[in-house]
Structure prediction request, 700 residues.
Amino acid sequence: MAITATTLLSGCAKSHLNYPEAPQDGTVDTYFDLTVDDRYRPLENDTAAATTAWVEAENKVTRSYLDAIPFRDRIASRLTELNDYVKRGLPGRMSDGKYYFYENDGLKNQSVLYRSSTPEGADREEFLDPNTLSEDGTVALTGVSQSKDGKYTAYTISRSGSDWTEIYLMDTASKKLLPDHIEWAKFTGASWDAGSEGFYYSAYPRPEAGKEYSNANENHLVMYHKVGTPQSEDKVVFSDPANPLHFHTAALTESRPELFVSISGQGVGNALKIKRGNEWITMSPDQDYTVAPIDVIGDKIYLYTSYGAPKNRLMVADINNPSRENWKELVAEGDGVLTDAAFSGDRLFLTWEKDAAEHITIHNMNGEKISELKLPGYGTTGLSVDRKHPEDVFYSFTSFNSPSAIYSYDPATGESSLMYESEVKDINFDDFVTEQVFYPSADGTKIPMFLTYRKGLKRDGSNPVYLYGYGGFNVSLTPGFSPNRMFMLENGVIYAQANLRGGSEYGEEWHQAGTKMNKLNVFNDFIAAAEYLIKKGWTNPDLLTIEGGSNGGLLVGATVNMRPDLFKVAFPRVGVMDMMRYHLFTIGWNWAPDYGTSADSPEMAAYLHGYSPLHNIRNDGTPYPAIMVTTADHDDRVVPAHSFKYAAALQAADTGDAPKLIRIDSKAGHGAGKPVSKVIDEYADIYSFMFHNLGIEPKQ
Prediction:
């Protein structure tokens, strides 16, 4: 059987989309006194034959639709051209004294790691090419760390976009792969001990076969691996069986042997313990605040924390008496949000965010400000410094209409020099401009938003707009470059990026204003952004597209249900769409501090049900925008069942004639580490779907 929808395709005659019938079993759940229909429960079993057949049928419908768009191949060709430029990462000196940096010469699926005796890379050699680890580029290199003596290099990989991590070991000098191999690690790197004999990492017990990408992850362990031994001999260093829903992350500093363990997962911050000898000492006892050790110098532990400072500050603890009540302030909370701190010799480099753009200040060891790096404008920075080598100060800068540039900074003169600047073919960045506006949300709160567009554009309501948002988990959206986005800009689309509540743009208070029973603030902020763009003459509802991923997919799904009249096209990508059951899969329980759960209370269950995208799709003929849901088979962050159930319910509902498709990628995950070829292919589909349903044929 199939569900038939008559769809009016822009610029085409009427055609029929035959959506496949989704497997269902009539499940009904009860949450306190609330009854909830969950008829598409069988789609949660992603390995079942019925689900596999449904996925195959859905992808066939979606591919037939997208491949019939006449300019789809032209878009893919232009995106390929836009991505074909050299991209270089910041250099950093490692324990062997060499400088390491990533570079992609254009269209390689994964960036290659190089090493050199100079930061400029004049005599560089290829150190590790992840493109050789798989034929299709779906193995991503996710991290590299060296033993303190530089003899060994550990590197972490992810396969097909999964959060599961594997660790391999190399001889640094010869680049020879050693037998050591770690599996079922997650959310971890390799933290080397002071003697360079082994490293600490975090892992879960081996998951049940067939449920590796869906079952809840519990009992995160800190393990120790000694070089040259099998994983079966690794020792548990830290565990907490009484709290199976905690993350445990190990860290050491360069100068001291003490081991730090951060404990998170059930709060907005993290607890922190330090091991001295055989004793674990609690530095910060709860997960109410963020706390992270920056370095240990002598007997002083330098800490970055939100304790007593919603916008964060720097503190100092005595390693002999490190509990929280004894910390002393070094750099006070400022007007902007402190987001990072690092030592370079006897100087502190602090990164701040103000109105969603980043700035870097330089301080002495007493915390007093000395100077500030001069940046070109609204943008996002990266910083590479080394306490042992104060001459090595490198930073990057990128913005919406400026690809990443790398600078070196001379501490003696305070001057910066351009080391490397990306060159994108056939784009004149002077043709585009970014401005920041502030608009009122439903409760009057002023929300910042960046608008990037071609110069000379007229505000006559006739411009297509691509509105993007996230609004959650203390994540800030700062300006950054995307070659794929340039395709929209050169075709007259305005890119709008709204800095919604729930993020970290103004610190913890801004974050809390978009969590739990304040979550509707986030959706209202996004709706207000659309209304502002229409009211001010930037666009109109027939030209407005919205997009968001993960928590942003929830945002798109919820706002479409609330105000389907505002939008023409919508992309809920890898979204959290079932708010009643999200906490039951992989690490979904970790999101409870932001969302609350349906098991918390009758009030929380009713609140979640009131906006859950899956459960609030209208079925009364109200026209919805054209929607293309995206997910992937190896997404073990937000399991594809969310998108599966939402798409099935959407296709079965009476929401008008616009297409309701789902694009299910294979050998891909939540997004990190996705090969360049897959990224180009996905955006070719997204932009084709958008322009087609806006009734616009791109010129470029």
Observations:
- DSSP finds ten helices and 41 strands in the chain.
